[in-house]
Predict the structure.
Amino acid sequence: MQNHKAYFLLFHTIHDVLRVDKILKKIAAQYELVPVPRNLSTDCGMCIKLENDIESIKSHIEGIRMDKCFLFNGNEYVDIT
């Protein structure tokens, strides 16, 4: 069985999520704006889901403070903040 790898970027506010959304659109990144998975936070909110190189994305959003970054390896979420 192949593992499906995805990164989930969580931010302190929805305003930060929307700022990152705008930046990622400008650079034509492949991402999704998704609800925060329940096992990561019980708060209602949105996060960024990426399936590509997290390091190149981080360089574009340096000015925005990320709360947490999780790697989903197909089985579990691993905090890679």
The mean pLDDT is 88. The chain has one domain: 6-79. The domain at 6-79 is CATH 3.30.70 (Alpha-Beta Plaits). The first strand starts at residue 6 and ends at 11.
